[in-house]
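User: Batch of two.

Assistant: Item 1 of 2:
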Amino acid sequence: MACVREAGNSGPGSRPPARRALAPRLQVLAAAALFSTGGAAIKAVHLSGWPVACLRSSIAAAALVLLLPQVRRRPTARMLAVAACYAVTMILFVQANKLTTAASTIYLQSTAPLFVLLLSPWLLGERIRRADLLSIATIAVGLVLLVTGLEPASATAPRPLQGNLLAALSGLTWALTIMGMRGLGRGGGAPTAGDGKTAARRASESGGAAGHESHDGAAGSLGAAGGAFGDVAAPRSAPIVAAFWGNVLAAAAALPLSLPLPASRATDWLVLAFLGLFQIALAYILLARGVGGVPALETSLLLMLEPVLNPLWAWLVHGERIGPRVLAGGALILAATLLNSWHDARLAARERGAAAVV
């Protein structure tokens, strides 16, 4: 990742300060836009969820190992544990998109902050603050609205209830991925760009990757764990390595249930190539390059472009509509996530100010 020069330096290849400030923000926005295409693209492939998950992650892993030298290292046991959580998230994201609407999938996966807040005291040693209780309650209400706000079955959402349950489960596995990547970032000795509680948005494929998937990323969908990738330029880039191995594990886990591959069209392979190369791999590379130059709160805000655009692409491509309860639930979840990010940023600023005085 190219290093951002200090404002006072003026090397021969240095760019004006305004361009240096704009470039990482455009990279994060581009990553969020790519993450957001996951739902519509997955639905456009005329294959079941298992082969889509397998081939999407296979292509993404191949692209990442070719384009990011830092992933070519032996993973530790902790990396593989985080990668396993991420792999499950990637598979759940694909399966949910095949069964329910893209809007329900991305909004339910965006409940990851609820699980992060609830699990942080046990897994990260972080106590729940009084201000977090409002976020927990708001996201919980949004979760109930989403799970119960079932739309009639349709060609692109044949089993909404089952898909919603899988998407909600992906919120839990994405939360575990976020916390694991935060722990890896700490272990790498490099500070992350944001707090683990504010990192959840893909998510993802990424996304995506992490996606997903948010990511899912996944990422995206990983796409929401921008803070977890704040140390990708450091010698020990453990989170991005875990994301790579997550794609490897997802492809391996889905392979037995994908064979033999059913008949497919050339268009299916083109969409799968887009999912692996652009929706996951390129999105993660852009996120990795941009997140180090953008404050944590602003990163969270920019990555909110994914859940905003995701249902829009599904509507434009497949005619999927968002019901009022789904829309209300998604709005509550996104609003609670933004408010929690803002509160965490203010708290971090006060702590930095107090440390500077001391």
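Item 2 of 2:
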Amino acid sequence: MSHLISCVYSIDNLLHVFRLVRPNMTMKQLLQDEERLSAMKELLVQMHPSNFPGNEDAQNIYEDMQTFYERAAENISEESSKQSRRRKKNHPRTSPTTVIESVVQFNVRQKWPWLDGYLRPLSPIHLTSGKVLAPLVAYQCINLRGAIAHGKRPSLIYSWENVETCKGQSVMDILMKHGGFKTINGSKVDEIKVEIINNGPVISFSFIPTTAFAQEHSESIIKSRIKKHHYCLIIGWKLTEYGEVWLVQSYNGTEIFQVPVGRYTIEETILAPKDNYLHVTWQQGPYYDKDMMNFNGWSNYEDITLILKTHELEEFVEIFGDKPFHEVIVEKTRFVIRDKKKHAHSRSCSLTSLNWDKESKTWQAQCTFNDKGSQPMLDDDLA
């Protein structure tokens, strides 16, 4: 089966596909990142579903083509990696932006699916002023990145009350309170993409919608911000029949609209949190802090046994106050195990048994997790 897949997604087959739009394309050109991406864009423009009205299969074929390209490109990358290992150690490495050029579409929900439909805080009122929009978008970005660090939707977030207390403050002001920010110049589109694909949503500080654009997206654009800076969250990009567009999440969560790359000054000034928020707690306690270094992949355990020395047991007991252990076990009293070194990594659980081990002279606390865990990438990607 794997042999069949490798044949389907072979480099030779990719070349045959590209020759549909570039009959004279050579293998040498195919192996060049810029030539390959340019040919792919040309092919997708011709294959776009809008060119085939009434054809129900057009969208599926369009998406399958992108999957085919990505898989075949992976084979090219693997082959390139093999060749690079044969070169000298001081040979220049491929930059992240070169790799990102092969990604024709990306949405943060692809990599972090628990973000699907998630946007907090939301405004309980219809916004009419940018004085509230700035802190709102800033905290939305922080919460989304916190969800990425946490590995699932957090229960402890920055709320609308936080936004209201910061009314009139800038996006920079908010980000500075929470670990600082970095700025990406609009001329470096690939760097913006690298930031999004590696770390999550970014904020456009420079987006200026026109009257026509605002009319088209009336629910997402604040009227007082027409022809002024309208801060917004960029969550990805895609290639359309008209060229590349940014995917922008509306501040009220009602729409993901598209803004053409290079239009409305959207990427002129991009802000991104400098902090990865691994030190922030994103789940309600009470907490038992434990160094989880030796529990590789614990984010997906169904249960866990904590080995506690006597002084550690005393700390553990404090979580439950005056409640006896037999009641804690019978009532399945909830508490949270939190990684001592990465507070963002935490899971709700309950104690199922507590036993003394004579041989090791330690207490063994058997705990069952209350959730289904988070994505397997949590411990690897956020280490």
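Residues 58-86 form the longest helix (29 residues).
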